[in-house]
Design goal:
By secondary structure, the chain is mainly beta. Helices cover 4% and strands 52% of the residues.
Length: 717
């Protein structure tokens, strides 16, 4: 008996059938499957969308960047769960908890985001969904599943995934599992002048990118009940990452375990659609120095760091078709997040005799409500108006350092922090207005304006130590500097305008889409160099080295444009041909200091020649990135040169078997990642400006991978 894939339950008559307003792009399973053999990182798959880049991190934990904004400035929903990175380096990012093989669909909302998917973010929203449960067409029990595997030459990466399903027309049970492992990758040439690694005689070749190895295993069990127009689904997800090393952080993740229970309901009622969700998530996170970094410092066996967090959340959403042309969406959300970040004493020197409390009983509670009205006001005009209110409360308990008597200001800093008001309530407002004019069946113009607010993270508000060795362990951007927080940080407030021009040919054989945008951000959380000795902002800026930085509110602006284009070429006996290209430009500046914002992707473009002949698909792609000369001066961000890459890929689909293969960086170019950060993949990374036996390693950036052959096979049954 064949399987029947249960469609998403939607209101089938009315405005909800229209294209989603504010949607930048949606990647479906076919788009994602093509990239699974090339990467184990779900965030990297999103870079096929113009304006989306990644800030380098670990092999499965890169941080997505939308038009210059990343990490906590984005809202990321995985099967409706609003995860938070529980790490002073954002190592366990939300997208790291779902492998590419488990992704069914990803939708990216950039900038002007509908309030129904927004909340506590200013840069946009990424919605990732795994496959809907499957049911049989009658009461007979049926089974299905798939098995896949991949191999990558650069780093000797390999992995596998498996899925099994058993169901009748009412109940469905499924299991998913994935595994991925890789050694360090090699750059396209020598990118550093030194080879010393861990301080124990180990060395790394000058082209080996230290601390890029990883290993990950993820498993989930899903039970679903289907009755008419009602679907009740429960999922348990478990992930263990025994090792994920980081080339731009001073620490490595040597264990991370996630346990998540997710309950969801979708149903059609006589008034419309109802969705409800409740979830619980526990994270246990451990960091220390990995195999490529010095571990022993005197009698101190590394610098152990433990982070534990608990997240409890619930969502409720109702969608009502008022008329065939008018839809109202109402919703409420609740999330309670608790974080403890503790560094046990190590040895008898600086890291003792007490434990270091980086964040003690950090709390963040969000309660939000929203309303959204979408209406086709005329045959060619569709509008959407939305408003959201969120009450966000944050707090943290008193802290203490390793030793309050040492000449590291731990006693002074903890006393000042403990005497401060460490409890804050923010009342955040989110408002969006979008209008689309359909010039024809194939072309449209969309206008959008939004006001969005974000409460600073617990790490931005409640880290407290100005000591260099402690502060450099609090770094979410990978630039080598040290950071500490400010309990008085205000929420960021972003006002954004954007327009999208979407033209398609009458025969759909060509298309151009362009989206210019502008954002002004009040109280943008940036950072200033800090004079730790006098506990004040530095009066003289120090360049060409790493510094202690303090988060602070300043004003900023970001503008840019994203362009995509495609054109069908004449078909011939060899098959169908086409061209596709994209171009993105982003400019970000701190209006208080005049400096450019950190980690802004320079001008970049791609063009691909696509070929398809029945079940055979091929692509030749060229990617070009301009030199990055506009950098953050206070952070001493390192400039990068421009470069271009050539990539090749091919794929073939049989009835049940698919094969994907390709070569990334065909010409084995040696290039720096513009958002890669400062290289910290080896050496004495505990010491600021003392990473090498000869002193500081400042000025070395993380390079991209050299030539890599990859291949993946997938079998469905």
């Amino acid at each position: 008996m064949p399987m029947a894939y249960l469609p998403a339950i939607t209101v089938t008559a009315g405005a909800s059938e229209a294209n989603n307003l504010g949607t930048s792009a949606t990647l479906h399973q076919n788009d994602i499957n093509h990239q699974q053999a090339a990467t184990s990182d779900t965030a990297t798959i999103l870079t096929k969308i113009p304006g989306i880049n990644v800030q380098s991190a670990g092999g499965i934990s890169n941080l997505p960047v939308i038009r210059g904004l990343a990490d906590n400035r984005l809202r990321i929903l995985v099967d409706g769960v609003d995860s938070i990175a529980s790490c002073p380096n954002s190592m366990n990012s939300p997208l790291s908890y779902i492998s590419p093989s488990a992704v069914e669909e990803t939708t990216v909302y950039a900038g002007v985001t509908p309030v129904s998917v927004g909340g506590n973010s200013i840069g946009g929203t990424i919605v990732v969904e795994s496959a809907e449960p499957t049911f049989s067409e009658d009461s007979n029990v049926v089974t299905s599943g798939e098995v896949g595997a991949f191999y990558r030459s650069n780093g000797n990466g390999y992995g596998a995934n498996v899925e099994t399903n058993i169901a009748n027309d009412v109940l469905s049970l499924s299991y998913k599992g994935s595994y991925a492992k890789s050694d360090n990758y090699d750059a396209g040439g020598d990118f550093k002048t030194y080879t010393d690694a861990s301080g124990s005689g180990q060395s790394l070749a000058k082209d080996e990118v230290g601390s890029t190895a990883f290993e990950s295993q993820t498993q989930s069990v899903d039970v679903a009940y289907h009755n008419g127009d009602h679907l009740l689904q429960g999922t348990y997800l478990w992930q263990r990452v025994p090792e994920e090393l980081y080339p731009n952080q001073r620490m490595d993740m040597l264990d991370n375990q996630l346990d998540r229970v997710n309950l969801r309901y979708k149903g059609e009622l006589n008034w419309g659609q109802l969705e409800a969700q409740a979830y619980h998530e526990d994270v246990e996170h451990y960091m220390n120095f990995g195999k490529d970094k010095q571990f022993l410092y005197g009698n101190a066996a590394g610098m152990p760091m433990y982070t534990d967090s608990e997240t409890i959340g619930a969502n409720l959403k109702g969608i009502v078709d008022l008329t065939d042309q008018s839809t109202v969406t109402l919703g409420a959300e609740y999330q309670d997040y608790t974080l403890d970040d503790l560094w046990p004493a190590s040895g008898t020197g600086m890291m003792g005799p007490d434990d270091f409390e980086n964040i003690n009983n950090g709390q963040r509670t969000r309660i939000g409500v929203y309303g959204e009205w979408e209406k086709q006001v005329a045959p060619k005009w569709t509008t959407q108006l939305g408003a959201r209110y969120e009450n966000v409360r944050t707090s943290a308990d008193e802290v203490s350092g390793y030793n309050s008597m040492m000449m590291t200001n731990q006693g002074r800093d903890s006393a000042i922090f403990n005497a401060s008001d460490r409890s804050t309530t923010d009342n955040n407002v989110d408002a969006t207005a979008i209008a689309r004019y359909d010039m024809s069946d194939n072309s449209s113009i969309e206008f959008g304006a939004s006001h969005k607010e974000r409460t600073p993270s617990l790490y931005e508000r409640y880290t407290w130590s100005t000591w260099g060795m402690a502060s450099i362990m609090n770094n979410t951007v990978g630039d080598g500097n040290g950071y500490f927080g400010d309990p008085d940080l205000k929420p960021e407030k972003s006002n954004t305008l954007s327009m999208t021009f979407d033209w398609r040919g009458a025969d759909d054989n060509w298309g151009i889409k362009a989206t210019p945008y502008y954002s002004h951000i009040d109280d943008y959380v940036d950072a200033v160099q800090w004079d730790s000795a006098n506990n004040t902002a530095a009066t003289t800026q120090t360049s060409d080295q790493y510094n202690v930085m303090r988060y602070t509110n300043q004003d900023a602006r970001i503008y840019g444009i994203d362009i995509t284009a495609d054109r069908d070429l004449p078909s011939n006996a060899w098959g169908d041909w086409g061209l596709a290209g994209s171009l993105s430009y982003t400019n970000g500046k701190n209006k208080d200091t005049g400096s450019h914002l950190y980690n802004i992707m320079p001008l970049n473009a791609s063009i691909a020649l696509n070929h398809e002949n029945n079940n055979w698909k091929n692509q030749v792609e060229m990617v070009a990135v301009a030199a990055k000369n506009k950098v953050s001066t206070p952070r001493n961000e390192v400039k990068t040169a421009g470069d271009g890459l050539l990539n090749l890929s091919t794929g073939y689909q049989w009835d049940a078997v698919s094969v994907e293969a390709g070569i990334d960086n065909v010409l084995d170019k040696n290039y720096a990642l513009p958002l890669g950060g400062s290289y910290m993949g080896q050496g004495r990374t505990m010491g600021i400006n003392n990473e090498l036996t000869t002193g500081s390693n400042w000025g070395t950036t993380v390079p991209g991978a050299g030539r890599s052959f990859y291949m993946g096979v997938n079998y469905k049954f």
